[in-house]
Amino acid sequence: MGPTAGAVSDTDPAWHVHLPPGVKPASVDLLGKRSLPAAWLAVWAANPDSPALLGPDRSGWLTAEQLEAASRRVAGRLLGAGLTPGDRILFSAGTSIDMVVAHVAALRAGLVVVPTNPAYQERELNHIVTDSDPAAALVDDAERRGWILAAARKGMITVRPEVGLPDSGEPPIDDLEPAHPALIPYTSGTTGAPKGAVLSHANLLASSESIGLAWRWVATDRLILALPLFHGHGLCVGLYGTLLAGASAVLQPRFDVDLVLDAAAEHDATMFFGVPTMYHRLASSKRVGELARLRLCVSGSAPLSAELHHKVEQLGSQRVLERYGMTETLMNASNPLEGER
User: Fold this and answer.
1) DSSP secondary-structure letter at 275?
2) Using an 8 Å Cβ cutoff, are 173 and 76 in contact?
């Protein structure tokens, strides 16, 4: 298995190899902070001026304090519009700071987010609306998807990512129980129509805490986040993990080799998460050697072939860390940060 962190006993579980030096399995409490929003609030309060997110428009860094204030304001607008904790809100929008703020706000308000691919057509959207029965939808294309969603469920509140609703004071938010549902991503599995997987606040927190420990995610890390935020890899691993660590992320509108490597150099990035197709394109680029500047590259969502793993290591001086998860369970397994992969 390769070297492990610190001395261990015969009674330690197999996953002890993922823990930082000095951290004992018995001390790990993945649910001690109760919910991701509660954990995020503590992180933001501790370092309010730290940069959190840089949007695709590159209009400036959003600090932890600004993210807290903006998401609190939007949460109030959503609740002031008549939504109540437990209501479902469908998201159909591309990556932007406004969309991320609204997503964080919805979780803080106790709403259940239903993330969807903005490329979905009428058939897919109608199925998800019928199945999840959302009370609201956030959509960045009112002319097409907004019309489809409004027609699919009469009376549904529809807003744009900036959530231009009237401010409604300071309604109670952040009153979240670990068992309360937080997210309903849809997965088709291998048969039939896509099915909603109900994930609780406890699920989201435990997954994020696990990868933070396993990958030694710290506040000085900076992630180049080119994965879509409607999928668990970009959303539940990339975004949630960044915010929990008090780290920062550079949001990319899409994956492009030059955009990713330029952003990594310009913003002193330390991490990149991708899927095998992305690593294939990186390995085929003359700039693949620039991956060496990063402390960690992670691959998921599909198997990474041994051949591609060796190619990235040879040409880019990166031993990509592969992990495995499912929409229904989030993170399940990871290669160790230290030792054999």
Assistant:
1) -
2) yes
Both tokens of 11, joined, read: 């009674």
pTM: 0.93
Q: What is the CA radius of gyration of the chain?
A: 20
The model's pLDDT over 209-235, given as tens digits with 9 standing for 90+, comes to 999 999 999 999 999 999 999 999 999
Q: Name the burial class of residue 1, with classes exposed (0-12), middle (13-18) and buried (19+) by CB atoms within 10 angstroms of its CB.
A: exposed
Which run of H or of E encompasses 73? Answer: helix 64-80
What is the C-alpha separation between 71 and 68, in angstroms, rounded?
Answer: 5
| Token output for 103 | 């997503």
β-pair partners for 326? 330
User: In terms of Cα–Cα distance, which of 298, 280, 279, 306 is closest to 337?
Assistant: 298
Q: Which tens digit of pLDDT belongs to each residue from 30-50?
A: 999 999 999 999 999 999 999
- Long-range CB contact pairs, 283-291, < 8 A, 24+: 283/308, 283/311, 283/312, 283/315, 283/316, 285/257, 285/261, 287/257, 287/258, 287/261, 288/312, 288/315, 288/316, 289/315, 289/316, 289/317, 290/261, 290/264, 290/265, 290/316, 291/261, 291/316, 291/317, 291/318
